[in-house]
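Batch job 17 of 40 flagged for manual review because the log was empty.
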Amino acid sequence: MSRASLKEKLPILITASVLVLLTLAAGLRFDNFLSLRVLMNLIADNAFLGVIAVGLTFVILTGGIDLSVGSMMGLGGIVAAELITVSHVHPLIALLVPIAVGGFLGWGQGTLIAKLGLPPFLVTLSGLFLCRGIALAISRESVQIEHPFFRTLTNWSVSLPAKASLSLGSIVFILVVFGGMILARQSRFGRTVYAIGGNANSAELMGLPVRRTLVWTYVLSGMCAGLGGVLFALYTSSGNAISGTGLELDAIATVVIGGTLLSGGYGSVLGTLLGVLTLGVVQTAITFMGTLSSWWTRIVIGTLLLFFMLVQKVIELAARRGQTT
């Protein structure tokens, strides 16, 4: 197996294996865990996280990081809620505004990183505080969304067998995943993203638009974070400025568990989907158990994250050794 193949395929296979083992173990332990209804609920419960993680995948593929996605989601949710409830803007328009706001903030962060060479960690950390501060300035209280059309959107779903249903948020998540997979693998933008993560200097010498692509990865991440805020508002029928607190860490964890290297250059949107599903299976299993605190989710995810970081390190060392022999 070549170095590229080892780094690319093995992490996904390991993630898929862990996901299958966790799912089978939970299915043997709890009745109805493997039902279609539970699977659909799992996807619906993690749709907003999954959409954000897809956007974040592109940033991490370049070797960057975006710590602002959680607070950007909270900002998007409270903006949508205020527009619908207070300003009486139609939901179709109000729900597009957070996506535009996220894209604009992502453009600002990407410009600082790509054009001025500022560290992504510090720039997006500043973005985290900025978005959270703006959200709290808009409203410190949770804003309930009461609108007939919005209620129609929250209740809309596609009926499936076995009393299961596919919610609007789940459908959006699935579409974003497929769109992300096509963008990453079938477009010039995606190929440039991988090239930047592999070696930004070499990519620039090849004539690839490195700086412009970097900016657009943060725009994409910001738009996905804004869309995540919209999905969270649909999920809870409200907007809250403090929603999404710490969600950036969950998003990073799902991307890493999905096999994307933090150093950039290797990973996939498919792997991120598997990472989101793994997180969802852990959460659902702990909910089924009923006797464990929700903090056990953090403990298990932290253990899995450490495991996958070690796996990545082993794969990287094996690939280097294979290259030298």
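Reviewer: the log was empty due to a logging misconfiguration, but the result itself is present. Residues 3-324 form a domain with the ABC transporter involved in vitamin B12 uptake, BtuC fold (CATH 1.10.3470). Unflagging and moving on to job 18.
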